[in-house]
TrEMBL record, chain A:
Organism of origin: Streptomyces phaeoluteigriseus
PROSITE patterns per the UniProt record, alphabetical: ALDEHYDE_DEHYDR_CYS (PS00070)
Protein name: Betaine-aldehyde dehydrogenase
PANTHER family (alphabetical): ALDEHYDE DEHYDROGENASE-RELATED
Family to which this protein belongs: Belongs to the aldehyde dehydrogenase family.
InterPro entries: Ald_DH/histidinol_DH, Ald_DH_C, Ald_DH_CS_CYS, Ald_DH_N, Aldehyde_DH_dom
SUPFAM superfamilies linked to this entry: ALDH-like
Cross-referenced Pfam families: Aldedh
From TrEMBL, chain B:
Name the UniProt record assigns to this protein: Aldehyde dehydrogenase
Classification via Gene3D superfamilies: Aldehyde Dehydrogenase, Chain A, domain 1 (3.40.605.10)
Transmembrane spans: none
Signal peptide: none
Organism lineage string: Bacteria, Bacillati, Actinomycetota, Actinomycetes, Kitasatosporales
Xref: InterPro entries: Ald_DH/histidinol_DH (IPR016161), Ald_DH_N (IPR016162), Aldehyde_DH_dom (IPR015590)
Record's keyword terms, sorted: Oxidoreductase
Domain Aldehyde dehydrogenase: from-to ranges: 28-259
GO molecular function: oxidoreductase activity
Length: 478, 300
C-alpha cells in the first residue's frame, strides 16, 4: 500500500548474542559430540545464513542422555521441594536477565519478528519458570493428595514455532515436580535450547537433571521409544502424535500430546469490528500463522461479512513483512523451506478447488523463506483450506447465519484446540463457549497465554494440559 | 601505627526509624525507648510510636491498597522474591541483629535468617496460586456461569510475634501482603530492631511504599487505636497475650474486622499452611447468565 509515511529501518542489534560456530549435545552437564560424530547446520530462515553447526543426536546419544537423567533423578527427586523451587527461581531470573539476548537469538534461528520474541516469547518463558518454581514446594496443595510423587525421566520433544517457550512449558513443570528430563528441540531451531543449557549451568543445576539433544525425528522417535523413559510429552503435528501414541501403547509411560488445530474465530454481528479485526489478525498472523492454536478459520456472521472483510483487508495492507530483527516488522520469515513448500502446496490447492485468494500488495525479500499474508473467501467446509492445518499466514473465511450454525461449523473438524468468539453479549459468549469442543476459548481476544492458565486440546488436538495447576498432573504419578 | 588506629575506630551507630508510607520517619511524638539485648546490654533507642503514628500508618496503608491489590499476582510474586534476593545480600546484618535480639549463637541466628529468606520465597510462589487453590467455578443448577475468587480484605494490622523477632515477623507479614493486602506491623516490643531494619530491605525491593508499614513501641499502646480504627479491615493478634488479645478482639468487633487469634507456634521454621493467607481473604462470587441453547428457542 502506498504509504504517506515510510518507516526507517529500526533493527535490533545482533551484537547482544554471541553464537558459537558449533554446539554439542548437552548430556550430564557437559557439551559433547554425537557418538557417531554427525552434525547438522541451522540456518536463519530470513536470510538462509548458516548460524551454527550442531551435533546431531542418534540412538546411542539418546541412551546416554536417558541414563544421565536416570542417575540424576534419585537425588533431584529427593531434594526438598523448597530447594528445587530455588533452582527454578534462579533459572527464571537468569532468563529475565538474558532475555534480550535470547530474543535476538530466537528471532535469528526461527525467523519470527523481534517484536514477538521480545514482547511475547521471552516474558512468557521467564514467567513459566517463575510460576512452576512456586509449585515445587506446594504440591501438597495442588489437589493430587498428599506428597504426590514424580514419574522419573521425562522424554520431551518440542516444535520449532516457539522453541524456547515450548521448552519452558515442558521443562518447568517437569523439574518442579521432581522429574529429570531429556529434551529434543526441533532440527530447525536448536539454538535457544542450547543456550538454555548454559543457563542451567549458570543456575548451578545438578548435572543430568536437564539434557538437551538437538536432532531430527529419528532422535525423537528413539527417545519416545526408550524403555527407561517414564513420561513422554510431545508438541507437534497430529500425524507424529498418533505415531507416538502407538509407540507408547502397552507401556506404563504417561503421555501428553499437544498437536495441531484448525481454530474457528467466530464473529457475531454485534461485535466491535475494529477490535475483532485486530483479534483476527493476531489470531492468524501472529508468528506467521505457525501456531497450533491459530484462528485459521474465520466464521463471520453473514450480515457483517462485507464490512468486516473491507476492514480486514485494509488492516492487512498495513502489515509490515520483512527483516525479523526490525522492530517495526509484523510478519517475519517462514521457519523453513520445507514449511514454505507445504504452505504453498495447500494454498495452491485452495485456489484449484475454487476458493478466492487475496493478499495485500507485499514485496517479499529475495533470500529466505517468505509467504505473504493470505485470505481465502468463498470457502466452503469441504475445501482443503478449511479442513487441513496449513500452519502458515493463511486465513479461510466462511460465513454463518445463526449461532447454532456457527457452533456446528466451528466443531466440524477433527481438531479441538482453540476458538474465538466476538460479540458484545456476555450470555452469548458463555453459551457458545459451552458448546465448542475446544480446549481454549478466547472471547473478544485471541492468542492469550499465561503460565497460570491450562492449555491443550480436545479430540485430535491431543490430550493433557500444559500450564496452571492442571499442568502438574502430567508429571506426577497420580 | 595506622593498623592500631583502625582497630580503635569508633563505629557509627544507626538511628533506627519507623517505616511508614515508604519513608523513614521518627515517631511524631519524639519519643524513643531503650532496646537492649538478652543480657541487658543497650543496643539502640527505638522510636516509641504514638496513636498518631498508628493513624498515619493506616492512611499510608489505605493509600497503597488500590495499586497493590490491583497489581497482577505475578508482579506481586516477583516483588516478594526480590525481597528474598535483597535479604540474602544483607544476611550478615540480620544474623547479627537476630543473635543480639534473641540471645542466640551466630550459627543458630544464621539458621533462622536463612529460614526467613526462604519464607519470602515460599510466599512469592503463592501469589499466583492461592486463587487456583481456594477459588474456582461452581456448577450451579441453572444456565449460569458462576465463579468464586479470593480477594484481599484490605488494610491489615499485624501484631508481630514477641519472641521470634525476624522469622516470626516475616511469617506473619508475607502471607498478608502476598494476596494483595497492605499491612501495619507492630514490631516485637522487646526486640524491634530486625523489624525496623527489614523496612530498609523492603524499601529497596520494588515494594511500593505503604504496602508494609513498621511501627515500634509499646504493643498495647499502638494496637488499641488500630483495633478500633474504622479504616482497618483485619487484625492479626499473633503478638498479643491472652488479655490484650481479648481486649483487641472486642474493639475489632466494632467494624467487624477479620480477626486472627494468637495461635500457639512451637517452631516458626515449620512449613506454613495457607491459613495465614485465607484469614485475610474475602471470597467474591460472580454470576453471569449463559443463555440457553438448543434447536428450539435458541436465545443466545
Amino acid at each position: 500500500m502506498a504509504s504517506l509515511f515510510e518507516y526507517a529501518p529500526a533493527p535490533e542489534s545482533r551484537s547482544v548474542v554471541d553464537i558459537a560456530p558449533s554446539y554439542g549435545l548437552f548430556i550430564d552437564g557437559e557439551f559433547t559430540e554425537a557418538a557417531d560424530g554427525k552434525v547438522f547446520k541451522t540456518v536463519s530462515p530470513s536470510s538462509e545464513e548458516v548460524l551454527s553447526e550442531v551435533a546431531r543426536a542418534g540412538t546411542e546419544d539418546v541412551d546416554r542422555a536417558v541414563r544421565a537423567a536416570r542417575k540424576a533423578f534419585e537425588k533431584w527427586s529427593a531434594l526438598p521441594g523448597s530447594e528445587r523451587a530455588k533452582y527454578l527461581f534462579r533459572i527464571a531470573r537468569i532468563i529475565q536477565e538474558r532475555s534480550r539476548e535470547l530474543a535476538v537469538l530466537e528471532t535469528l534461528d526461527n525467523g519470527k519478528p523481534i517484536r514477538e520474541t521480545r514482547d511475547a516469547d521471552l516474558p512468557l518463558v521467564a514467567a513459566h519458570f517463575f510460576y512452576y518454581a512456586g509449585w515445587a514446594d506446594k504440591l501438597d496443595h495442588a489437589g493430587f493428595g498428599a506428597d504426590p510423587r514424580p514419574l522419573g525421566v521425562a522424554g520431551q520433544v518440542i516444535p520449532w514455532n516457539f522453541p524456547l517457550l515450548m521448552l519452558a512449558w515442558k521443562i518447568a513443570p517437569a523439574l518442579a515436580t521432581g522429574n529429570t528430563v531429556v529434551l529434543k528441540p526441533a532440527e530447525t531451531t536448536p539454538l535457544s535450547a542450547l543456550f538454555f543449557a548454559d543457563i542451567c549451568r549458570q543456575a548451578g543445576l545438578p548435572k543430568g537433571v536437564v539434557n538437551i539433544l538437538p536432532g531430527y525425528g529419528d532422535a525423537g522417535a528413539a527417545l519416545v521409544a526408550h524403555p527407561d523413559v517414564n513420561k513422554v510429552a510431545f508438541t507437534g503435528s497430529t500425524a507424529v502424535g498418533k505415531e507416538i501414541a502407538k509407540t507408547v501403547a502397552g507401556t506404563r509411560k504417561k503421555l501428553t500430546l499437544e498437536l495441531g488445530g484448525k481454530g474457528a474465530n467466530i464473529v457475531f454481528d454485534d461485535a466491535p469490528i475494529d477490535q475483532a479485526v485486530e483479534g483476527i489478525v493476531s489470531g492468524i498472523f501472529f508468528n506467521q500463522g505457525q501456531v497450533c492454536c491459530a484462528g485459521s478459520r474465520l466464521l463471520v456472521q453473514e450480515s457483517i461479512h462485507d464490512e468486516l472483510l473491507d476492514s480486514l483487508k485494509r488492516r492487512l495492507s498495513t502489515l509490515r513483512l520483512g527483516d525479523p530483527l526490525d522492530k517495526n516488522t509484523d510478519i517475519g520469515a517462514i521457519n523453513s523451506a520445507e514449511q514454505l513448500a507445504r504452505i504453498t502446496t495447500l494454498v495452491e490447492r485452495g485456489e484449484a478447488e475454487g476458493a478466492e485468494r487475496w493478499s495485500p500488495e507485499c514485496e517479499l525479500p529475495t533470500s529466505g523463506f517468505w509467504f505473504a499474508p493470505t485470505l481465502f473467501t468463498n470457502v466452503t467446509q469441504a475445501h482443503t483450506v478449511a479442513r487441513d492445518e496449513i500452519f502458515g499466514p493463511v486465513l479461510s473465511v466462511l460465513t454463518f447465519r445463526t449461532p447454532d450454525e456457527a457452533v456446528a461449523k466451528a466443531n466440524n473438524t477433527p481438531y479441538g484446540l482453540s476458538a474465538g468468539i466476538w460479540t458484545e453479549k456476555g450470555s452469548r459468549i458463555l453459551a457458545v463457549a459451552s458448546k465448542l469442543r475446544a480446549g481454549v476459548v478466547w472471547s473478544n481476544t485471541f492468542n492469550k497465554f499465561d503460565p497460570t492458565s491450562p492449555f491443550g486440546g480436545y479430540k485430535e488436538s491431543g490430550f493433557g494440559r500444559e500450564g496452571g495447576r492442571h499442568g502438574l498432573e502430567a508429571y506426577l504419578d497420580v | 601505627m595506622s593498623d592500631k588506629s583502625e582497630q580503635q575506630r569508633l563505629s557509627v551507630f544507626k538511628t533506627y526509624k519507623l517505616y511508614v508510607g515508604g519513608k523513614f520517619p521518627r515517631s511524631e511524638s519524639g519519643r524513643v525507648y531503650e532496646v537492649s539485648d538478652s543480657k541487658g546490654k543497650w543496643l539502640a533507642n527505638a522510636p516509641l510510636s504514638s496513636r498518631k503514628d498508628a493513624r498515619d500508618a493506616v492512611v499510608a496503608a489505605r493509600k497503597a491498597f488500590g495499586a497493590w491489590s490491583g497489581a497482577t499476582a505475578y508482579n506481586r510474586g516477583q516483588i516478594l522474591y526480590r525481597v528474598a534476593e535483597m535479604l540474602e545480600g544483607r544476611r550478615s546484618q540480620f544474623v547479627h541483629e537476630v543473635a543480639d535480639a534473641e540471645g542466640l549463637s551466630k550459627s543458630k541466628a544464621n539458621e533462622l535468617v536463612e529460614a526467613t529468606i526462604d519464607r519470602w520465597v515460599w510466599y512469592a510462589g503463592w501469589t499466583d496460586k492461592i486463587a487456583q487453590v481456594v477459588g474456582g467455578g461452581n456448577p450451579v443448577a441453572g444456565p449460569y456461569f458462576n465463579l468464586s475468587s479470593p480477594e484481599p480484605t484490605g488494610v491489615v494490622t499485624v501484631l508481630a510475634p514477641q519472641e521470634s523477632s525476624f522469622l516470626g515477623l516475616v511469617s506473619v507479614i508475607a502471607p498478608v501482603i502476598a494476596t494483595g493486602n497492605t499491612a501495619i506491623v507492630i514490631a516485637s516490643e522487646r526486640s524491634p530492631l530486625p523489624a525496623l531494619s527489614l523496612g530498609e530491605v523492603l524499601a529497596t525491593s520494588d515494594l511500593p511504599g505503604g504496602v508494609v508499614n513498621v511501627l515500634s513501641g509499646r504493643t498495647a499502646e499502638i494496637a488499641a487505636p488500630l483495633a478500633s480504627h474504622q479504616d482497618v479491615n483485619a487484625i492479626d493478634l499473633a503478638g498479643a497475650d491472652d488479655v490484650l488479645a481479648k481486649e483487641l478482639e472486642i474493639a475489632a468487633a466494632d467494624n467487624l474486622k477479620r480477626v486472627l487469634r494468637p495461635q500457639p507456634v512451637d517452631d516458626w521454621r515449620a512449613v506454613p499452611g495457607i491459613e495465614r493467607m485465607t484469614a485475610f481473604l474475602e471470597t467474591k462470587t460472580v454470576w453471569h447468565p449463559t443463555g440457553s441453547l438448543g434447536a428450539s428457542g435458541s436465545s443466545y
